[in-house]
Amino acid sequence: MRSPKTCRSVPFLAVALGVLAGLIFAGAAAAATHQVEVGKNGDNFVDDESGTSTTTIHVGDTVTWNWDNSFHSTTSGACPNGACVKDGMWDSGMHFAPNSFSFTFTAAGSFPYHCEVHLAMMQGTIVVQGQAANPPAASFTVSPPSPTVGQTVHFTDTSTGSPTSWAWNFGDPASGSSNTSTLQNPTHVYNSAGTFTATLQATNASGSNTAATGFTVSAGGGVPCTPDPSTLCLGGGRFMVQMVWTKPDNSSGEGNAVKLTDDSGYFWFFDATNIEAVMKVLNGCGINDAYWVFTAGLTNVQVDTVVTDTQTGAVYHNRNPQGTAFVPVQATTAFPSSCP
Q1: How far is CA 318 from CA 7, 265, 291, 308, 330, in A?
Q2: CA quadruple 269, 272, 274, 277: dihedral positive or negative?
Q3: For the domain with range 12-129, which CATH number is right: 3.30.470.30, 3.90.320.10, 2.60.40.420, 3.30.70.270?
């Protein structure tokens, strides 16, 4: 170990660079401060994160060295063949503990440093990676915006921030494995009418972001109603009725349909013994030349009710908002001019 030298002041250039870098990056959201212990576990530099003498950071980040014991410095420059050479990038000067010194890095690269007291016996390295990018901002379009059953729907990624992978969910669990895709611009065919919510998770090296879009798939003219566990067929099979529930955590699903009469039925969501909504489609042709939709509910989750006239392709949609006691519906103009 060499004898301690007289303490030297920090070179003006190193101070100026550190101050300038601090001004440039003070407001950068990605900037961070990394801690290195000086003299920890003997005469060593120890990074708090890696537990080694190597500190990995990004451009704009700051490194703070904290003296734990004894008499040391942090001085930039390599020690080839054991002979340390200062390069003038930073120099804390030699100090007894406790002390600290900080420096902000404005360029990528690998920067070796040493202690002027212990020279090659006490070395470290700062590895500065390129500035971390931001996660993408996910977005997409749906075409056509109002598809019909059996029509190919095109989903086009419009995300910004250079995503490198895509995870789609078309909100159509009845389609099985076809309900998801990892293509950038996939297509999907909906085989039942209703309201669907498609989601896209766009990802790059810095993280992920998700976007969602809701739309209605109509039966289209001349497509008959086929009853299934989530579909009521009312009015002699002319009207296809479905309900989709969404809970506060954004989980959703289709209501379970139970037919009562030719023009009425009910839906349960979470338990077959718990009726959530009842409804009927009435022939009001003799009164106002329209078919009517009446609905009442016993829930406060979001409920999307979709009634499709399979003869004309017209769709009636009503949404009960999340967290709101179900508001009764008496839509006497749900299907205007629908009578013969």
Answers
A1: 78, 17, 15, 12, 11
A2: positive
A3: 2.60.40.420
Residue given tokens 């718990």 in the structure block: 274
**Both tokens assigned to 247:** 């809970």
Neighbours of 156 (CB within 10 A): 13
The type of residue at 108 is A
| Average pLDDT over every residue of 302-329 | 91
Q: Report CA torsion sign: 221, 224, 226, 227.
A: positive
Q: What is the pLDDT of residues 21-45, one digit of tens each?
A: 443 333 334 478 999 999 988 889 9
Tokens of 4: 């301690």
Residues in the chain, total: 340
Rounded (10°) CA dihedral 51, 9, 94, 14: 20
Residue type present at position 299: T
pTM: 0.39
Cα separation, 255 vs 269, in Å, equals 5
CB 92 within 8 A of CB 5: no
Report whether CATH 2.60.40.10 matches the domain 140-217: yes
Structure tokens at 23: 């001004």
